[in-house]
Each structure stands twice: as structure tokens, then as C-alpha cells.
Amino acid sequence: MLSQYMEEFEQEPFEVGEFIERLTWRTNNELQNSEDFSPVALHDTFIQTIKDLKILQEKQQAKCERLEESLRQEKESHAKKISKLQERHQTAIDWFGQLDEKINSVAGKIMHLGEQLENVNTPRSRSVEAQKLLNFMAEFLAAGPVIVNDIFTDAARLSEAADVIQKLYAISQDLPPGKFAESKRKIEKKYDEVERRLIEEFATAQKSEDIERMKALAQILSQFKGYAQCVDAYIEQSQMQPYSGKDIFIGIVPLCKHHYEIIKKVFANPQQVMSKFILNIYQLKLHQYAMTKLEDKKDEEKYLRTLYELYSRTLKLSTDLQIYMSTIDDDLLQKLTQQIFMKHLAGYAEMETKCLTAKCSSELEKFYASKKHQKTQTTKGFRRNMEVLIATRANINIAAIEDYGGETFLSEELAINMLQEAKAALKRCRLLSSEAELPATAVKLNDILLRFLMHEHVDYALELGLQAVPLAEGKVFPQLYFFDVVQKTNIIVHLLDKLCHTSVIPCVSNTAKYSDYVFKKRILMEQIETKLDQGLDRSISAVIGWVKVYLQYEQKKTDYKPETDVDTISSAACLQVVQSLQPVIVQIKKCVDGENLQNVLTEFGTRLHRVIYDHLQTMQFNTAGAMCAICDVNEYRKCIRELDSALVTQLFDILHALCNLLLVKPQNLQEVCTGDTLNYLDKSVVRQFIQLRTDFRIIKNTNYLKGIIE
Asked: Exocyst complex component Sec10-like alpha-helical bundle domain location, by residue (predicted)?
């Protein structure tokens, strides 16, 4: 049992309650009849378990004491070992100090001995070297041809030959020219020969990419006059292969990165060599590439696109290569770029304006050709005014209105094409124009865009649209196309504003040309807005004029003064007017936007209210007719709700209240007149409506109108 208890105690986690539950369960299972509960048996089991646990505790306590004693003995043993190791370590430190002192003493003696040997050997080495140079000099001083020494013929001893001839050449420069002229000539000839061999050897090492050999040869050549030829040879051979097929720009940066790593290892002055490497790319490779690409100017648009692409890519290339340039050459790449494109940038502005003019003119011609329309002079404003005057005074229409079948002659696609062309031109202008010329060129390009897009396209379409608006007070419901003109004009103006903010203003802001740009644009927008307002006014007048004429001719007197009882419904004339006006309101909402929309809807509603109000003033109303009039006004009110105008809604609410004066009993007139809606109205307006009642003559002398007609 003790081993079983140990197993249970060693379980993680150990729960006392679970241990007692298991003990109780085992005790019950050991009974013959497990269904009977025996407290005595359970008590005995608990007593026995307690005894067993005490025995187990004693054994564990004895085991712990043995382990603690073993641990104490082991701790003492390790402490003695550590003490001995510390003593040995201190002894080793002492020996190391003594050894270090002896090494320093020996090293000092060796250094002193080395200095003595050097003092003896240096003069001897110099003497040997001087003797060697004198022997070579004697060969060059001797009369007749030079006896070729092995050092100058053995390719393996080229470095040694270079050292000798370089020193001989330096010595020969101090010799007087008369007596030693021939000797100096021989030395110079051999000097040039060795120098040429060194450069050839350098080129050979470059082909095999032997960096160490190239570095050694470059170091030797740095003492020669032809060191620059070595650099030139390296650059020429490095740039001999095409960079990247037809597109030269792709391969230049990787090429420079690759050779910069080599140049840093080979040459003592890598920044200067790299600057010359890049200079060669610009002056030879890039310059020739640009001249080839830009030699054809017949297609001006293609030429400008190519110029922009080459110039922008060259500027980006300069930015990428700047890390390889020395600090004293900060603006060198910029100057080289200007030299490459100087001739082309000089005439850029003139060609850009000419090209944009041609493109915009061509787009306009193609558009009107697609519409089979021949542009005409739009100077018919006076004629239009005379037609309106005659039609109004004489009640005749002297000429038919030309509406071109509803064609607006405005094209969003055409506008987008022109704006795209202008955007591309302005983008090129910002890059290719100098800082001083940029504002003037940008304004010229903007003027071209405004001329063709706004003056020759939008303004022309507005003139045609104004002429196509039907005359007011016609008997036939007017066909209105000017709202479509308004919608397309708004879209084009929004597109133009977006282009101006993104492309034009950045070019002219904070310059003297900015005020010129703002002034021109403001004048143009005012002209456009004036014609839009004029067209909207004519369109509203045409619709409202038709309503006026239609009600005059179609509204029967008996609608509001029936001789017999009729069903209380809206009149046919009212329903026709409402049915005709609803599409107009929808069209206005579709074509007009912003604050202008609310203004137009309000103006439309107020004019409609005036016509209906004046129309009702011409009628007489009995009780049944008054009911019909109220139904008509309710229909008008439903119609004008779509206008979303508080003012118009209020006007028609007042009109509805005034119509109630035609229906109420005479004794209730005072109460209705003092209501919230009519109380603040002028008494004359109220009197006018009351006088429209058929029973007005009967009630005017009664007390029902006291305070109203007085």
C-alpha cells in the first residue's frame, strides 16, 4: 500500500479531496455487498491509512536526512577543490607575468639589432641600386645604338624594366640638352616603348579580368606620363560593347555599378577615374544616341514625345549616377545633360505651341466633320431679340427656330482629347522649359487650350443653344435642349478646372504671369456663366410662357364655375400642365448641379406660381368650382415638391389657403383670413381673391367682410 500511496502523491497536481474520494471508493468496493454503506469499515480504513502515512512520513524523513548529509559532504569536497584551483591559477598568473617581461626584453633587443642592420643595409642597397642605374645609364650614354639589356626584352621582368626606365627618365631630365641630347632621346624612346608595353599588358589583364595584375600595372603606370592613356584604355574597352540593345539607358547604371567596384580595387584615385568613365558615356554614347533619335522633326508630336522621354530619362540617369561622382563634380552631370539637349531645348517652346495648336484644330475639324456641320458666324443675338419683340407685340412667329434636331454640338470626348493633349504639353513644358521661360510658355499653352476648347467649341455651342431655345408664350410645348448644353458645359468646365489646378497653376504660381492667367480665366468664366444664365432664363421663360398660353386657351370658365353639380376632380388643363412640367423638372435636376440647381429650381417655381396666380385671378368661382380649383392647386403643389424649394412650397401653400377663401362659408371668412397662413398677407391680396366668389355681391354688404374690405 505504501508504494501505491507514493504513486498517488507523486501525481501532478495532487488533490487531497480526490485522494480521500478514491480511498472511500476502494473501501466500498472491497465490501461483499457494495450497495451497503459501512461507516465502521470506512473508519477502520481511515485509521489504517493514517498509520501507513505516518510510517511513510518517517521513511521519507530518514531518506531526506541521508540526502542532506550526502549533499553537505559533497559541498565540502568541491570547496576544497576550488581552493586548490585558485592557488594554481594565481601561480600561473605569476609565471605569465615573468614570461611577458622576458618577451618584452628580447623584443627590444631584436628591434635594436634590426635598426643597426638597417642602418648598415640601407646605404649598401642604395649603392647597389645606384650602381645598377649607372650601368644602365652608361649603355644609353655610349655612342651608337643601345645595347638591348635582358631586362627590356624579358616580358616577365616588365615591372623591373618599368622601374629602371622611369628612374632613368627622371635623371635624364636634369642633364644639359646639348651634350646629352642623343642620350636623352634614347632614354625617351625606351621610356615610351616600356610605357606602351605596360598599357598593352594592362588591356590584356582587363580582358581576362585579372584584377590583381591590373592593380599592379596601374600602380606602376601612375608614375608614368601615360597614366591617363591607361585610364582611357580601360574606359574605351569597358564601353566597347552595347549596353542593352536598342535602349541605351537600361544598361548604363548596371555597367557603372559593375565597373565602379573594379575601379575602386584597381586605381588609386577611383572617384576621378569614375567621373571620367561617366563623362565618356555622356559625351560620346548618350550624345550620339540622342542625336540619332531626334534627327527627324517631320512628325512634331513624335519628336516632342521623344525629346521629353530622352530628357527625363537622362535626368533620372544623372540622379542614379550621382553617387559615383566626386563632391567637386556635383553639377557636372547637369551641365552635360544641358549640352546634349541644348540645341533642341532652344526651340522647344515654339514647337510645343505650334503642335498643340495643330492638334486642337484638327480635333475640332474632325468633330464638326463627324456631325456634318459647317461652323457659321454666331452673330444672331440682335436678330433673336427682334424676333422676340415682334412675336410679343404682334403675336406672330416670323421665323422658325433652328434646333439642329437636339444636337448640342458639345462633346465630352473631344474635350477630354484636347485636355489630354494640353496636359501632355504642360507636362513636357514643366520639364523642358527653363525656370525663367516656364510661366510664359505655360500661359501660352493654356491660352491655346482656352481658345479652341472654350471659345471655339463651348462658346460656339452656347451661341447655337441660345438660338435654339423656343420663343416664350408659344402654343406648342417647347422642345428644350439647352439643359443638355448646360450639363455638358458644366462637365467640360469641371475637367478644365481640374487640369488647371494640377498642370497650369504649379507652373505660374508665385510668378508675374499668375495674375495674367487668373484674369483671363475669370473673364472667360464670366462670359460662359452669362450665356448659361441667359439660356436657362430663356428656357424657363419658354416653359412658363407655354403654361400661361395653354391655360388661357384650354382652361374653361366652366371648370371653376360649373352650372351643375360635377365630381370634384382636377381640371384637364391642370393635369396636362403638371404632366408636361414633370419631365422638365427631372431634366433640370439631371443637367444642372451645385448651387445653380437650387437657384434655377426656385426661379422656375416662383415664375410658375406667378402664372398660376394670375390665371386664377381671371376666373370666377362658385362652390363646386372652388373645390376644383383647390384640387388643381393641390396637383401643382405635388408637382413643385420635386423642386425642394422652401420658398416655392410656401408660395403654393399660401395660394392653397387663398383658394380656401373661395370655398368657405361667408360667416367663416373672418376666421380663415386671420389664420396663420393668411394673417400676414396684404389685405388687398385677400380682397382680390374673395372678389372672385360668385356670391361676392351678396356678401359684400354684410358684416362677414368687416375688417377685410375696409
From this structure: 160-704
> What per-residue string of b and e applies to 146-172 under the rule 16 or more CB within 10 Å gives b?
eeeeebbeeeeebeebbbbbbbbbebb
Model pLDDT for residues 43-79, shown as the tens digit of each residue = 877 788 788 788 888 888 888 999 999 999 999 999 9
Q: Which residue has the cell 622576458?
A: 102
Grid coordinates given for 404 = 439642329
Looking at residue 246, the DSSP 8-state letter turns out to be B
pLDDT computed for residue 707 by the predictor: 59
Distance CA 229, CA 198 (A): 11
Q: Report the predicted TM-score, pTM, of the whole model to 2 decimal places.
A: 0.68
Interacting residues of 290 by C-beta distance below 8 A, sequence separation 6+ = 310, 314, 340, 341
Residue 168 CA to residue 172 CA, distance in Å, equals 6
Question: Cβ contacts of residue 33 below 8 Å, gap of 6+?
Answer: none
Per-residue pLDDT at 1: 60
Cell (9 digits) for 687 = 380682397
Contacts 24+ apart (CB under 8 A), 394-402: 397/471, 397/474, 401/467, 401/468, 401/469, 401/470, 401/471, 402/467, 402/468
Residue 567, pLDDT > 90, answer: no
pLDDT at residue 2 in the model = 58
Residue 396 corresponds to which cell in the numbers above? 406672330
d(Cα 70, Cα 67) in Å, to the nearest integer? Answer: 5
CA dist., res. 221 & res. 468, Å (int): 89
Cβ contact 337:282 at 8 Å: yes
